[in-house]
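ZP: hey, is the iron/sulfur cluster complex queued? I don't see it on the tracker
AM: it wasn't, my bad. submitting now with these inputs:
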Amino acid sequence: MGKATGFLEYKRKGAKYVEPQDRLNNFDEFVIPLDEKEQQIQAARCMDCGIPFCLSGVMYGNSVSGCPNGNLIPEWNELIYQGNYKEAWERLCKTNPLPEMTSRVCPAPCEGACTNGIDGEPVTIHYNERLISDKAFANGWVREDGEPILETGKKVAIVGSGPAGLSAAWRLNKLGHKVTVYERNDTVGGLLMYGIPNMKLDKDVVAQRVNIMKDLGIKFILNCNVGKDISYDQLNAQYDAILLTGGSTVPRDLNIPGRDLSGVKFAVDFLTDTTKTLLKDGPKSLKETMKGMNVIVIGGGDTGNDCVGTSLRRGAHVEQFEIMPEAPENRAYDNPWPTFPRTKKTDYGQQEAIYLQGKDPRTYEINTLKFNGEDGKVVSVDTVKIKWKKNTEGRFIPVPIEGTEKTYKADLVLLCMGFTGPEQNTLDEFNITVPREGYSTINEKVFVAGDMRRGQSLVIWAIYEGRSAAEEIDAYLMKNI
Ligand SMILES: Cc1cc2nc3c(=O)[nH]c(=O)nc-3n(C[C@H](O)[C@H](O)[C@H](O)COP(=O)(O)OP(=O)(O)OC[C@H]3O[C@@H](n4cnc5c(N)ncnc54)[C@H](O)[C@@H]3O)c2cc1C
Ligand code: SF4
């Protein structure tokens, strides 16, 4: 619970960010955690509210309230306050095998459901988790959590090395099974590696976990596209169970005139190229590589924000389009505690654009009508402002506002409109459909988890799905022993 009166005595204090003028010069992580003593005071704000919604992970409609992974938050808040970090770590890794990732990138639905937030400010759960995770790595406690407890002689293949695959691999290995992870990319990590930019999650953080996993006996086979380089039949012959965690990788497209012009790209391709160059040639090789370019980011979500921050670091001028209305500053009447707050967030990329360009890069309620080109290359984008109105069937539809047509200069357009689902050819290779309930499929040896199963989501959902699927696979493998 922290300290009984902590929530009355102490104000919330979050981590600091490196100032935009400094962080724009590099691709380094920009969050500066509080020092240990200050973070302990923040943990003391946990009031032991009795029914902690912060760890409930309940779905209200299609959004989650509380930690999807059921992290034992009040317990570790108390242990941080006591300075008992080892036990705090043991509690944390009971549910979360990758807290160094979530404590950097999770949007913290737990905090939206913190009881302190009903009439005040929530506990800094996200940064408390970071302190425990930092302590565990600094003290060498991480490996022991993954030590196998027995050897079953069973072999499991995991297809895809994103957070779902890594979480499942950690748990299955601990349960005594021999795990091999197949990844078609040149590096382990899925969107943790190629997707989420280095400023939010340093790639050394991913590598440090992967090295421990290798040391624990988990095997990684890279540059291997399952379905092309190795078939289902080959995997089936070698393994007792197969888990597919290939992600929700088909991006939502914008099929308007000019879509085939060069310079109109999907966000993940752009972010992946940037990270690959950064890792191969260092930050200097990216500096001013987009100087003088006008970038249009279509999509106002987190991926769009990552594209804004990345483009600015490479020297471009950025505009960001969002078709939905601007979110309110405070919770709306239909978005009460403990639902995830759908309030306006000005994220790091937008803050940087405000610093560099003098205004928020976002334009709301704007529709993109056409990409214009010259010599096969995009040069501008036609837009119109819209209003959302109900049609005769009672559905909201975007209606153009006459006279608001505008053309924006564009040398690069980044499409950040989400993902529609997994790749059909992988499912075809295994002759399965995506399970709606649980992780098993019509082929009893084949399981599915992560974004591949639930659709585009969050790192913490992928972690939860990976470890839950691991339990289901373990039950399947052990039932005849
Ligand atoms: C740009 C971006 C930023 C994001 N930022 C955040 C954030 O800040 N916080 C957050 O919580 N969530 C964020 N997300 C969402 C989060 O990254 C995903 O929900 C999460 O990574 C899903 O994990 P996964 O393991 O299911 O799939 P993925 O991370 O997509 O991993 C799937 C892996 O499977 C591999 N694969 C696919 N098919 C095959 C095959 N046939 N053979 C071999 N390998 C294969 C892929 O190469 C990939 O490495 C972001 C997403 C994007 C796109
Ligand atoms: S994983 Fe996310 S939701 Fe869960 S406790 Fe950590 S920050 Fe909160």
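AM: back. The mean pLDDT is 97.
ZP: great, adding it to the tracker
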